[in-house]
Please model this.
Amino acid sequence: MAKHKVTMTINGESVTAEVDSRLLLVHFIRENLDMTGTHIGCDTSSCGACTILIDGKSVKSCTYLTVRADGANITTIEGIAADGTNHPLQKAFHDQHGLHCGFCTPGMIMRSIDMLNTNPNPTEKEIRWGISGNLCRCTGYNNIVKSVQQAAEEMAKEKEATV
Amino acid sequence: MIPANFNYHKATSLKEAIALSQELGEEAKYMSGGHSLLPMMKLRFATPEHIIDISKIEGLSYIKEDGDMLKIGALTTQTEMEHNTLLKENYPIFGDAVWLTADPSVRNCGTIGGNVAHGDAANDQPALMLAMRATIIAEGIDGEKTIPIDEFFHGFYMTALEPSDVLTEIQIPKSTKNSGGAYYKVERKVGDYATAGVAVHVELDEAGVCQEIGIGLTNVSAVPMRLERGEEVLRGKKITDDLIEQIGIIAGEDCEPESDLRGSEAYKRSIVNTITKRMLNKALERARK
Model:
């Protein structure tokens, strides 16, 4: 089977590799690039633990071919704490105790980034629907919702400050 | 889970896609969003030798009204449909369905063309297409073809598309001020396929008489199903509460569900009855607005 040369930007850095057609993006990120913040949960696009951003949109990387990401701009959980300062969502999950075991957290945060970009001021219902493709088996979701609410407020303030 | 080996090919134009398909033969499959086909490949339910990626083809992602038709490009994602103003204002049935289809991250990838071309009676869009009497436009070896929706679904994962055909556009009669549609499905949890779902589209005349009616059912038959007997009863009549009650009963009788992990046959017939009535009422309410 032929190998394919792919080039993509991951967390601001250009990456080039030769990959098999069937290599899933989550495996490429975890095993080839050694970035294990992106988790594999159900492996069937149900749980959202593997959520990353492709060109700004949340995508379940267990159901995405690496070859298809050729030319894409990818962000993983490793890429959101610019200069070592936590992203408002990371800070909020810490402040609000939005995690227990933490397995779902990277996916929750990457999904929430896309949600807040599309809808900067979501209602509680919109947050719950917005993270409906990300499963958490510990928190019961309430603290996750609070975390997203806190981050939304903080990101709105940041935006105001930069305008 | 890792799919069985296959060869990936990227098509950058329709012409290239069709040529590739012709060259590679029946063991080649098109992939757009990949969120139906790739899970099947991971489970080895599907083992194509070649995947032709059509997701990068330009010009197949749009939603517009043109003449007396609403036209949706096949590569339009579910997310694009969810946020589209024209659909929100004039075709709320799409919002009903998209909101209940998979989850936001899957909808970022999944396309309307893929949802229909997959030929799965468990997918949500086929019922909408039946209710709104869509026309499927496809491009094949011999050029463009136009397929009425009633001739499109042939069987379990089988459609009128030839192996080399690419579904390019969906056309739906433009909405009028007296038309309305609604969709709902019962699901066990977010992201699940429907236990059962019902799409209704109705067009009234000025006097409130039903001129056109479409009722499509999700996941209660091997092939996406039109509720023909129910439509016949309503066409040309003023739709009353008694008639709606009667259509609910017909829907429960005529659907063809099987007992499975989502519920017993009797339970599914019962929810088809109930959702049909609710969606008839909701579609009528929207048509009368």
Observations:
- The first strand of chain B starts at residue 7 and ends at 10.
